[in-house]
Design goal:
Shape: globular
Number of helices: 4
Helix content: 25-40%
Strand order of the largest sheet: 2-3-1-4
Distance between the termini: 13 Å
Largest sheet: 4 strands, antiparallel
Number of strands: 4
Amino acid sequence: MTLPVVAIFVAKSGLEEKLETLLRSVVEPTLREEGCISYQVNRDIANPRRFVFTEEWQSKADLDRHLATPHLRMLSEQIPALIESSDVILLAKVAGGPA
């Protein structure tokens, strides 16, 4: 069974564009990773300070390798200065297509 993930980041006021640039920078290298089924960053229409990653991995081991990559380590170092809050949710797929 695959592993869907949702990650939500809320930018500090005035830092939305910097956060978007940072989040966009990890999408392409992540899509090339082994075990990545889908990976996208989205921006909430009703609250443009909120960014939501929807992703799906072949396994928890693939997600763990993703979290150890240089681009994700860079993200984890830079993101705290730009956000008010974050939440990462690992899901159990019940039905449907890729996340």
